[in-house]
Design goal:
The protein is an alpha/beta fold and 746 residues long. It contains 26 helices and 22 strands. It has a seven-stranded mixed β-sheet. Strands 12-13-11-14-15-10-16 form a seven-stranded parallel β-sheet, sandwiched between helices. Strands 17-22-21-18-20-19 form a six-stranded parallel β-sheet, with helices on both faces. The two termini are 40 Å apart. Bound molecules: adenosine-5'-diphosphate and magnesium ion (MG).
Length: 746
């Protein structure tokens, strides 16, 4: 107890006397250095690598008279202040600053927040550079809360073609009062300081710089912050992109080396039955062949291809380590059947399989699918979920332990401690995000003597080439075609004010004997508020709009058995309309459902929207998807809409436009990746610490691939990066990774 108190005290002491490396740089000082460190910019290198988000080019100034052509877009305008009006008796306080430019027209900057502060900052005749989103109010151009305002004194005159960096801002920087102008000053000082040379030290092998015609790191850093020309800026960006992607690939490459070096040998399955089943020429003999022959459809070429890849891994043809393969394919591409046939390989070899779903409802769905497909075949499939009677559960677990059960379906609880298998051969996990490095490690630790193969299924596919470079740590199989005969799902956006007509269309759909989903988003933070919304909506639908139709409700707060019961009713067409909150719980297969309505649609991610839409169009009937944005996104000319809101609105609506323009999951995930960046897109487990400042995983795919190949070559010649040519790279790599890496071993 006393010891703990002491530690705390010591910490307090150190922090007050802490020295920040940046405080010695001109213009920074201890206070600012501390604030910068809090914002994640602790060293000169951190700041140097905090690249501008974009640049303001003096040549792209827009004349105020022409602003009509730029409605709701971000523009740069230059003009002098003709009036500063401070309304301090209004609530909220409000400041309006009017500027006039050479075109003779005027523009109003409007502030609600910081109104008092802003009013004191500017006066008549100040020459200002203003950047922000343009709106109009009563015919007058205005920018509410500009993104940037800069007073141009003679010294800082914007010259032709000069590019001014605009930095990404975060809360920590903002609350420390560090703005764009100050960041620019800080960068000027760093570029002039003695620290610069070390902070921007070269970290790539000279031969690669030469091969790709890349400029050196110091030059690139200078040009990125204060470009001397658009051409040099381009070169600087190319260099930094390559650097970022090279180190990204290096992480994966090193991780893979480690995996191979430390891996246990996997099970060598005999894959003859599957190989024969895929040929499908002879009279079926084995279980796998007979199951294949009894499928109500023929496998697509893509399904056969990925099965061959999986079989190769299971037979350990190319490598002796357990399979760790990602099976990706669009919604409805038929991944479940593929997984089932792979499981039969293990079953025929006398091993057991576990199929894990992210939720119990989905587990149940998989169980139904698989038992239906395996009807009449001697395969023992069981389901383990919460809420089962104790006696039943004990039996299930006993059968698993004795080896009687061939395939068990459940949630991730299946690989937990109290579940024991007799001989586990293959684990199939649905949805990659929930099955990360940690889970795999736990599995390998638990089955140390004979680790099972692992197949991870993902329904957020990305293009094959991208996947292979992004998931270097995994092998990737892609189902890139849908079974034939699927009809395109029609998608459109309807604003809430126009939804009356939609209510009638729903009636028509139900009149045709088809079913409808109405989904409300569930955001983890405010789950109960979302449930409330859905319950309220359900009541309106059930009592006011469709009192004569059969409307059901399912949401996360319902007890498990009630949830299953509602889903069963919907599946068996005892309900016409299902109001639901949880995305994944709707991950079900009801071919008779042909209309998907998604409320507050912009609050879902693109991948979720695509998944949701994939719930219809599963039978042969024409299906459609209707996206309803929140009422706040309704287009209107409103004086109080700020630049930030407009920007957010654009992003939100862009998502819906993507949904309208394509039903191809690969296209959608590419757009998603481009909008969100890899960190968000892949989730923390897969992305590790991917933080790309300049490179764009989608747009820079070619550089990504070049970097991937270079890393492969480098590591194959010098796996520990010990050659003198690689020393700097090794140093930089070790510095960037906290964990002890394979490079550090030996
Ligand atoms: P995914 O899991 O990839 O979204 P599923 O495995 O759930 O897709 O398959 C979607 C539907 O398509 C299921 O009803 C399944 O039976 C059916 N299906 C699978 N493969 C084929 C095929 N080759 N031809 C026709 N239908 C198929
Ligand atoms: Mg599926």
């Amino acid at each position: 107890m006393g010891k703990k108190a002491l530690t705390v005290k010591e910490e307090v002491k150190t922090s007050s006397e802490k020295e920040y490396p940046l405080q010695w740089i001109k213009g920074i000082g201890p206070k600012r250095a501390e604030a910068l460190a809090k914002a994640g910019l602790a060293s000169a290198e951190d700041i140097l690598m905090h690249f501008p988000r974009r640049y303001i080019d003096a040549r792209t100034l827009v004349a105020i008279a022409d602003l009509h052509d730029h409605l709701w877009r971000s523009v740069a305008v230059r003009g002098s202040v003709v009036e500063v009006k401070h309304h301090q008796y209004r609530r909220p306080h409000r400041t309006e600053i009017t500027i006039r430019d050479k075109s003779g027209s005027t523009l109003k900057m409007v502030y609600f927040a910081y109104a008092d502060y802003v009013a004191k900052q500017y006066e008549r005749d100040d020459d200002l550079l203003v950047i922000g989103y343009v709106g109009f109010f009563r015919g007058e151009a205005q920018i509410v809360h500009p993104e940037l305002v800069e007073k141009l004194t003679e010294g800082t005159e914007l010259s032709e073609g000069r590019m001014l960096p605009v930095y990404p801002m975060n809360e920590a920087l903002r609350s420390a009062g560090i703005n764009q102008t100050q960041l620019r000053k800080i960068l000027t000082h760093i570029l002039d300081s003695s620290e610069f040379a070390t902070a921007a030290e070269e970290n790539l092998p000279a031969s690669l710089l030469k091969e790709h015609h890349l400029i050196d790191r110091q030059r690139a850093a200078r040009e990125l912050h204060f470009p001397s020309s658009p051409e040099l800026l381009h070169q600087a960006r190319e260099r930094m992109k390559y650097e970022e992607l090279f180190f990204l690939q290096l992480r994966y490459g090193v991780e893979r080396l480690r995996r191979v070096a430390l891996a246990h040998p996997g099970i060598k399955f005999d894959i003859t039955p599957l190989t024969k089943a895929l040929e499908a020429s002879t009279e079926p003999e084995s279980l796998t062949e007979r199951v294949r022959a009894s499928l109500p459809f023929t496998l697509t070429k893509a399904q056969r291809q990925v099965l061959a890849e999986i079989a190769g891994d299971m037979a350990k043809i190319k490598s002796h380590i357990p399979m760790h393969r990602l099976l990706q394919g669009d919604v409805g591409s038929g991944k479940t059947v593929v997984a089932m046939l792979a499981m039969l390989v293990a079953v025929e070899n006398g091993y057991q399989c576990a199929l894990m779903a992210p939720t119990e409802v989905l587990a149940k769905q998989h169980f139904t699918t698989i038992t239906t497909l395996l009807k009449g075949h001697p395969v023992d499939v069981s389901l383990l979920i919460g809420g089962q009677a104790k006696k039943l559960r004990t039996e299930i677990l006993a059968d698993l332990r004795s080896g009687r059960t061939n395939i068990i379906v459940g949630t991730h609880a299946l690989i937990e401690d109290n579940v024991q298998f007799d001989k586990l051969g293959l684990v199939v996990a649905d949805e990659q995000h929930k099955f990360g490095v940690a889970q795999r490690k736990a599995l390998l630790d638990k089955y140390e003597k004979e680790p099972p193969d692992v197949l991870v299924m993902s329904a957020t596919p990305i293009p094959r080439t991208l996947a292979m470079t992004l998931y270097q740590d995994l092998d990737v199989s892609t189902i890139d075609e849908l079974p034939s005969g699927r009809k395109q799902i029609k998608t459109r956006t309807i604003f809430p004010k126009d939804q009356r007509a939609l209510f009638k269309e729903v009636r028509d759909v139900v009149g045709r004997g088809e079913q409808v989903y109405i989904v409300y988003p569930q955001l983890e933070k405010s789950a109960s508020a979302d449930v409330k919304t859905a319950v309220a909506a359900y009541e309106v639908f059930a009592e006011k709009i469709y009192p004569d139709l059969r409307v059901g409700l399912v949401h996360g707060k319902l007890p498990s058995d009630e949830k299953h019961e509602v889903m069963r009713k919907f599946r068996q067409h005892e309900l016409d309309i299902l109001v639901a909150t949880i995305v994944i719980e709707v991950g079900i297969d009801v071919p008779n459902a042909t209309m998907m309505i998604i409320a507050n649609a912009e609050r879902f991610g693109l991948a979720q929207l695509h998944q949701l839409r994939g719930r219809v169009g599963r039978g042969g009937k024409q299906s459609e998807c209707v996206l309803i944005p929140s009422a706040k996104l309704e287009p209107k000319e409103d004086a109080t809409v700020s630049s930030e809101d407009l920007a957010a609105r654009e992003v939100a609506l862009e998502k819906l436009r993507v949904m309208e323009s394509t039903t191809d999951g690969f296209e959608i995930s590419k757009a998603d990746l481009a909008m969100r960046g890899p960190g968000d897109f892949l989730g923390t487990q897969q992305s590790g610490s991917i933080k790309l400042m300049v490179a764009d995983i989608v747009a820079d795919e070619a550089i990504l691939q070049a970097a991937a190949e270079d890393v492969k070559t480098v590591l194959s010649k010098d796996p520990q990066l010990r050659n003198p040519e690689h020393m700097q790279t090794r140093q930089a790599f070790l510095q960037s990774t906290q964990e002890d890496s394979y490079l550090g071993v030996a």
